[in-house]
Amino acid sequence: MPLLRWLGHAATEININGKKIIIDPFIKNNPSTPVKIDYTYDSDIIIVTHDHYDHLGDTVEIMKNSNKPLLLATYDLEKYLNESYNVPWDRMIQANVGGYIDIDGIKVALTQAIHSSEHSDPTGTVISSEGITVYHAGDTGLFEGMKLIGDIFSPDYVLLPIGGRFTMDPYQASIAVEMLRPKKAAIPIHYNTWDLIRVNAEEFSKKVKERGFKAIILQAGQSIEL
């Protein structure tokens, strides 16, 4: 049974098709996560949406301490990690915003995100396998292309930042849910890690319900079956 586990902030684990996928592995200095960094060492795939420290996180340490994970990020971010930290090219899956890439039976795509970053454009990601499709928006503001992401990928679950200030707030994220039209649920992420992004997730849940969709609020470390 596919599982999704929120690890706190934007860090998310998806277990699907026999693979452990970690998105944005910000673990070590993440005050909200209940797991230790070595929890990620047996990952099969690491996906990084952009290079801000709370998303790139512990990627370099993970790649250096385990020979198992493959890394998926934009080509330019991978180039930076190769040249600055000697992350080997043969363990990185070159990609950019576009269509699905098949990784051992798991389809992964990078999507547009409206945010900032230093070494490449920021992205979201879509993961699809076993009849389940999950969209993790990364860090982003609200943008009209979310409707297109919904049309193309038809997600079952969407994970959306709601912390405001650096990303969407609960109200804007509820609009994003309406544009994406998840078939099963919307899950808020990237909030309450620090005071600057402190919001009430129940506000998001209420607004999502008013728009005719379901929200699931997870505690850091909590899992759901997909």
Automatic annotation (TrEMBL):
Q: What is this protein called?
A: UPF0173 metal-dependent hydrolase DFR85_08715
Give the matching InterPro entries. Answer: Metallo-B-lactamas (IPR001279), RibonucZ/Hydroxyglut_hydro (IPR036866), UPF0173 (IPR022877), UPF0173_UPF0282_UlaG_hydrolase (IPR050114)
Which positions carry the signal peptide feature in this UniProt record? none
Q: What's in the keyword line of the UniProt record?
A: Hydrolase
What family is this protein classified in? Belongs to the UPF0173 family.
Residues passing through the membrane, by range: none
Q: Does the keyword Hydrolase apply?
A: yes
Q: Which residues form the Metallo-beta-lactamase domain?
A: 8-190
- What does the record give as the organism's lineage? Archaea, Thermoproteota, Thermoprotei, Sulfolobales, Sulfolobaceae
Entries under NCBIfam families matching the protein:
PRK00685.1 (NF001911)
PANTHER family per record? UPF0173 METAL-DEPENDENT HYDROLASE MJ1163, UPF0173 METAL-DEPENDENT HYDROLASE MJ1163-RELATED
Q: Which organism is it from?
A: Acidianus brierleyi
GO MF: hydrolase activity
User: SMART domains this protein is in?
Assistant: Lactamase_B
Pfam families this protein is in?
Answer: Lactamase_B_2
